[in-house]
Amino acid sequence: xxxxxxxxxxxxxxxxxxxxxxxALGLTFIFGVVRILNVAHGSLYACGGYAAATLGxxxxxxxxxxxxxxxxxxxxxxxxxxxxxxxxxxxxxxxxDPILQLxxxxxxxxxxxxxxxxxxxxxxxxxxxxxxxxxxxxVLGVIYMNYQLLFVPGAALGVYALLQWFLNRTLMGxxxxxxxxxxxxxTAMGINAKRIAYLTFVVGAMLGALxxxxxxxxxxxxxxxxxxxxVLSFAVVATAGLGQIxxxxxxxxxxxxxxxxxxxxxxxxxxxxxxxxxxxxLLVRPQGLFTVAQARRI
Amino acid sequence: MxxxxxxxxxxxxxxxxxxxxxxxxxxxxxxxxxVGITTFLSGSASVxxxxxxxxxxxxxxxxxxxxxxDGVKIKPIYIDEGVGGDRLLSEYRRVVQExxxxxxxxxxxxxxxxxxxxxxxxLKVVNLMWDCGTEKALEGHGxxxxxxxxxxxxxxxxxxxxxxxxxxxxxxxxxxxxxxYAWGRDSWDIFRTVLTQLKPDVKVVAELFPKFxxxxxxxxxxxxxxxxPDVVLSTSWxxxxxxxxxxxxxxxxxxxxxxxxxLGESSLERLGQTLPDGVLIGARGDHYFLHPSYLNDExxxxxxxxxxxxxxxxxxxxxxxxxxALDAMVAAYDKAIKQNAGWPSKEQLAExxxxxxxxxxxxxxxxxxxxxxxxxEQLFGITTTSSEHSFKVLKDIMIVPAEPVTxxxxxxxxxxxxxxxxxxIDAVKPAQAQ
Amino acid sequence: xxxxxxxATVAGVALLITxxxxxxxxxxxxxxxxxxxxxxxxxxxxxxxxxxxxxAMYACISGYxxxxxxxxxxxxxxxxxxxxGTLASIAVGMLVGAFxxxxxxxxxxxxxxxxxxxLFTVLGKFYAxxxxxxxxxxxxxxxxxxxxxxxxxxxxxxxxxxxxxxxxIWGVQRYFRSSAGEALAAIKTNETRLEYxxxxxxxxxxxxxVLSAGLCGLAGSLFGLSQGLVTPEMGYWLRSGxxxxxxxxxxxxxxxxxxxxxxxxxxxxxxxxxxxSGAWQxxxxxxxxxxxxxxxxxxxxxLSERRKALRGDA
Amino acid sequence: MSALLKTEGLTLxxxxxxxxxxxxxxxxxxxxxxxxxxxxxxxxxxINICTGLLRPSAGRVEFDGVDITGKSPRHIVRRGMARSxxxxxxxxxxxxxxxxxxxxxxxxxxxxxxxxxxxxxxxxEVDRVLELVNLRARQHEPASNLPEGQRKLLDVAMxxxxxxxxxxxxxPTSGVSSEEKHGVMEIVMGALEEKKVxxxxxxxxxxxxxxxxxxxxxxxSGGIAADxxxxxxxxDANVRREVLGE
Lengths: 298, 434, 314, 246
Prior knowledge:
Chain C: Keywords: Cell membrane, Membrane, Transmembrane, Transmembrane helix. The complex is a heterotetramer of chains A (298), B (434), C (314) and D (246). With 298 residues, chain A is mainly α.
């Protein structure tokens, strides 16, 4: 039995981690490049979900391909629209104290919260076509949705690989990396920081929205889902080390697994887990698990 | 000796004078009757709050069109419970003390009921608990101005046990998945206490309280699939219930375990075909838009039609509770006006609620004179596919009368629960179609 | 600064009078003063260039202490409860502070956030002891030995809140101008230099942190008494966010700022919720952004600008 | 007489790049040592190790006969070794005067909570130092108003407030226009003279070195290539080629 539980908990953890990673990824990516901790990221998650659900309803089922297209398409649209909005907003605060920038995103978050409710109302939203089309598979007598078991983690890995490729193999990506390492030098080298920042916001926003979109078939979209998701992804990002993409992947797994094991062994601890992990990690490694500290030049 | 008698007479006289005085002085009729209504307009509980608000608007428009109460028009003031306890309190005070509301309807959240009830008592304003469940809000407080126009958690949960044992007597194991907050915990406490008492051989294999508004229950579902309990109970509601039920059904858990959702009525329409047939559903009261006894009842029928037309969906229990509270208000004013031959003072209004019998959209409700607790029947049913609805409807509808499943006035719930006997199971009767 | 103190006192008394004359205003006013104290706590950290998204935790702690004591030791006086609650927060602040002062900027904020979230979830989870998400009732205690009914009790609290707020403004302002306070502000501009003057920035920040925890604690215990109920929501990160919001709104230039911000915030929110129920968050969000855009130093920043301008003319 | 500052085999490498290559060095009371060398020769690294910002991978630092290897800047400063910076490290939000007052309080290592900074700092001392670096006129302006030259002075002045026995100055005249340079050095050296402070200063300008140094040490790739009187070192062929680039 215990061995079975181990396996099952692993599977549950993985499916949850996939989602967590996608959301955290956008957050950490944006921070890595423009050094802004985007509280409004939670709204991106929520809007992505709502948009996907709405589109799904509008298309009304259709083939698997159509539903998947709906998920991805909607998150791209949301990403471009909201990413642009955020970027335009934050551009006004470029050279301000990072704390103020953070608070601006907090303000944006509050605004988005109400916008959501105005657009999508308060009734839970939910479109499950994709899940049903993908069917289920059985492990040790437990039935899993292929969507949760295979697709979401797969998508997470795919996105991760894609992002890595983009950052390391394309010119644009290399420029982004350059900016993350040293913006002065990068801009001195004639990299158009403005364009980079814009791109970053759009990509980051897309990732956040994609997280929401992928969550929408299995979870109900209700007012306020953004607020919880954002702290959770904060936990992931801070534990991994701000701006650490691979770190976020591993941390998301860590948190996802610890959570699912808790459900089997000590359910009461389930919710506290991510934060306990974060506190412990930060106490031992102030910069997060995967960041190398660098000294300030004087 | 003589002195004492004199004294006694004097005191008596004084008392009767006071009483008389209290009786004769009636308030004068206001230009309009301000009614404060707290309901969730934001946050996840707005699933209940917003439909209820719509219902209130509908109801009050109609009432005012008919000339209001004794010619006095109603002016509702809506307060958002979603702003959080502290601000809600300020706002409540503002509406009572600045806007001079004569009557308050509060609230949906049990937590808010607990906070606001003593305030209403201090402010001497009649407060109708129109939707919140916790029995603690009234029990043992002996309030003068606070009443509940529907059942409380005890009635609902004890009835739920009775129904379960009636329709599904022989099961060995049960698991619970409730939201992690007061209602989720309290309702399970009551349920478990009564269940283990009436059916000691039942084994509780899992008690899961996932976080309020959790986006994902995959681990919980897996665990339940390993345990394979005969019955899975969940008193969750709104988005949480939808999410849990959907993930459970997508993963076939509903095929292996019998699901029992005492608040399921409020999610039926949203869940569409997700629910299989044969799921046990409760309604938190005897409210259901297809209630056999009131299917053709004029008041009920027209309301359901109107509401569907206005909001595009069928009324859920919070809607019924709102209407019920407003009907109670009207009934109480009529009663008080008759008794006092004039517009009632707040005291007289409060008096009128004691022992008030009134009818909302379904069966009549009595407000217990002793503690102001509403006595409301409970409705349960089993999901089945319907030809004219795109979602599951209820069949084999059963009704549990309030009296046998409610803590008697003046008694302490935990003690009383220990005295509950299997006789309550026989109290469960099929609903009479008319 | 003398002048500002006088102005603050006059304003405080004026508010006190309005509050006592309009009963429904009492609660919002008490709340504003509570929020003011808490925001001032954040303000202390802002001066050191640090931000905390977890300080609601300290309000929460003292609130729960007050609630627990009020129901388990009925005899305790309200004043004593306030003191004990605050002390509890200070104690925890000393402990947590010792860890978090090693961190700066976003990590500082993050760590506070995480710790507060642990507390938040624990309070919600351990239902048997903490009453879960419904929280604990605060039994109305005697106040300075007097048994008081709700209305009198609230009036008394309001008076107390005003007095405490004025005291706090005065005291904290002194601290800001003291050596320790100025050195704290130096952490924001140049910590390296502090170290090279032989000053321990950590120690300074720790002092500031404990002070801020104490202020939030004071706010929390008053809050608990005025509400008659404490819930985990008191410690949720959004509440901490509100504190920061208010601190920025008022500005950390002068201790009085936090209270100006709190009053504005409280009534903005109250009327936003009353007039356009359903869009109050949006209104607040817009306000926040606008304030940051036009008055990065907050409302008191505005005042000091004025004063500079005047001096310029003279 | 024993050395005020003494290092033995100081070694440190960043990755492959050796920035301190087994440095043995002694400095005595009253000396004015000018440190010269190309950028990247390891001058600042040497200072950073001595003042505790960097920990050497090998070797030890002694100050006034006490081992201070790997001690934090704070402790080392308290022992009486102050430094000024290539990029002035000031409290830009504070006024010029406050910067000095804070330094003064630090000297007494007291940070009272209650008495205002102005009233608890030693006003006469502050005034004297303000005079020394003639910043009196601007004492109430925010430090951020000062031009580079005066920032350098304030930076040095803050270290002087500490009344150190040894002051290490990292390029006190870099970023100062060549006509100001001598002015700045005059003031600084005057101040040091008056306070009897031993000093090390990193300098590129040969005239300044000639004028103010009693001793010169030339750094080449993490080590001391030549050490001695200004004339001998500046005449050294190797130094001329490698350091002065002639």
